[in-house]
Amino acid sequence: MAVNAFERPAWRSKAVPVVLVVVAVLIMAMCTVGAEGPAARVIPVLIGGGAVAAAVWAVRRWRADRAEYERRLTAWAATEAVLAERLRIARDLHDLVSHGLGSITVRVAAARYEPGPDQMRAALDDIESASRETTAELRRMLTVLRDPAAPGPRAPTEGLDALPEIIRTALTAGLRVDLTSGELGEVTPGVQVAICRTVREGLANTARHAGPADVAVRMRRDGSHVVVSVSDSGPVPGWRPTPGAGHGLAGLRERVGSLGGTLTTERVDGGFHLVARIPDEPP
């Protein structure tokens, strides 16, 4: 029996109508109490015997239907788990490939503005380094996907200590980043990953749409929430946007939403403003 991966199986049993019929028949049998004649003696016996047989069949059918329902429910849960895993892998691949190749594309485009051969040589070195890092990470992930027993996680778990490298990569791509962080206190690992992904996606979005622009990254704690914002000054003169497929912000919104947070985006004074508000209450 095919299982719809998007709909939880419903519990139904064919024994229920039979039980209702048996109840109705028993009520009718009770109405014959006090009647006279041969039929009055035979009919209750037949009805009682039939009711017992129907009840035994209904119990067996109920058990069979219950076992079938549990089988379909198990298959549905397994299918949902596979779809969730595919979605997670798709997000990880997007973060890896899109950001890596995106930084390379932006660095190539920004190299057009370099004034001399030394700056051009430095840009080529940056492009080579980014290409090697992206290729190595992609090979590592594909190796683990082919061999589930391979050591290491499928995607690295980023913490706040990864932010300097994220900023360095953005600077390499030509962005002028100003990072300011208030006292965040203790931040849970899941929220740390979301913070890094928010900053990375915000910078990548600026690099694609605004080029080597000024970007302000702000992090602060607001009660039980951590607030992260990425704001740019708008496209630099002569910049031609290189938009992606649009999955980055959608995936980031899902990631933040899975933690109970919200992601908002808006245009402000010609620039792009992204804000993630994530609940975080360390134990």
Order of helices and strands: HHHHEHEEHEE
The CATH architecture assignment of the domain at 158-283 turns out to be 2-Layer Sandwich
Provide the gyration radius in Å: 32 Å
Q: How many strand units?
A: 5
* CATH domain class of the domain at 158-283: Alpha Beta
Amino- and carboxy-terminal Cα gap: 45 Å
In terms of structural class, how would the helical and strand content be classed?
A: alpha+beta
Order of strands in the sheet with most strands: 1-2-3-5-4
**Shape summary:** elongated
CATH topology of the domain at 158-283: Heat Shock Protein 90
- Major β-sheet, in short? 5 strands, mixed
Q: Report the helical percentage.
A: 55-70%
The average pLDDT value, as a whole number, equals 76
List the total number of helices: 6
Strand content: 5-15%
Superfamily (CATH H level) name of the domain at 158-283: Histidine kinase-like ATPase, C-terminal domain
Which residues form runs of ≥5 with pLDDT under 50? 1-5
Enzyme class: transferase
Biased composition (Low complexity): 228-237
Transmembrane segments: 15-35, 41-59
Protein name: histidine kinase
Q: How would you characterize this protein structure?
A:
The protein has 283 residues and is of the alpha+beta class. Among the domains are: 15-78; 158-283, 2-Layer Sandwich (Heat Shock Protein 90). The protein is built from six helices and five strands. It has a five-stranded mixed β-sheet with strand order 1-2-3-5-4. Strand 2 (214-222) and strand 3 form a beta hairpin. Helix 2 packs across helix 5. It is elongated. The model is unreliable at 1-5 (pLDDT under 50). Residues 228-247 are annotated as: Disordered. Residues 85-148 form the Signal transduction histidine kinase subgroup 3 dimerisation and phosphoacceptor domain.
